[in-house]
């Protein structure tokens, strides 16, 4: 019996050792493969900065050369698998980190992932939901991505869509993430100082984003919450598919099948009797409602994720890349819009800091100068679009400790991609004008004005009470000074100084009362009382001086 237990312990230890050895081998092989593919690009980028890597002047590289590199790098990312495809997709939304030519090339990774064989998906379905839970299941995928594949099926007599996570994807991504973490110190050492702030934060954000996207239970919760928000508002222009919780898990997501016409199929939409301009407006308002009112939003406005049903309602698919705003972040985004509309550079800087996009220690004067130049450039342009604004601002702020938080980046991504999609529906669609209209119609501008007036009122109240306490403070101060003065100073001169002080305070109070009339007459009347108090003290002091 003892010998049997001893052999059992040895067997368990051997299994653990073999498991650790397998992980080490897998990690080493993956590391060498990644290095073999990416090191040539690292050398090229370093040679751009130093012709001979460690010394020499920088070299000029043409836009065409960068475009060729971007295409080759895109192919390498596709070859390295889901983690690097997702990195490319994230970088395509980060103009603060990569040049525009690379960002534009990486956007195409969205549709470049080939679908895998159906037999690889069966274990997840069988283990998590029960393969025979579905009345019928079509093995031909209707969509595929870097992390999952989507199938048609029938569940409890209803047509559904089933999203299944690719097999082994989580282990592969966790291995890749460990590899990436090993490279971070080296990347920070080689990266230009102006990019280190953005890179450091982007790496932290990426790990959270990709692990969240792997969790279909989280996606189900986000879908249910967004669906509930629109139902609570009584909004009948948006459809969010229902989730079947009893046929869903971390790896499998079963949702209602909602048929619709692809949003970019303008000819078919018109043939079905839908007005493309109205559809564009409804899509924009749906995103504004999610982001600015609900604080939970769909973050992937890819043309394949948006459709129009027979009733003209907007259908949203795929909530893997979704985000959430805190109330403070919602207010900051609204205030940022308002500051931009009013050309308020200081307000823009304040909100960038509040959102975590700009380091609080950044040189405000220099940042303000840059933003002023951006506004001047945009005002001089005949046509201004969202993507142009993002490119201008991020391009000119590269020299500062500037980063774009992941949730804000999702909003910018929504804006830039949506604008391109919506202009296929309406060539004259203006995303910023639509945002301004939404803010005005939903009372955000009025609310901002009320908040500003409330802040001014609070400051004025504080100042007014301080002003009311001034006579007593001034009296004590003057008395203290009188005690300290030498006996050589004439009493009439002392009294004259006091009278002059009261006269100055009375004049200042009168000016302040006049300014308060436009804010609140009550405060103005209170200010006049202060004026009369100072006048009384002035008259009394002058009278005492004559005695």
Automatic annotation (TrEMBL):
Entry keyword set: Kinase, Membrane, Transferase, Transmembrane, Transmembrane helix
A matching Pfam family: ABC1
Ranges where the Protein kinase domain occurs: 136-445
Residue spans crossing the bilayer: 27-46, 525-543
Coiled-coil region: none
UniProt xrefs under InterPro entries: ABC1_dom, Kinase-like_dom_sf, Prot_kinase_dom, UbiB_kinase
Molecular-function GO terms, alphabetical: kinase activity
Superkingdom field: Archaea
CDD domains in the record: ABC1_ADCK3-like
Family from the record: Belongs to the protein kinase superfamily. ADCK protein kinase family.
Protein name: AarF/ABC1/UbiB kinase family protein
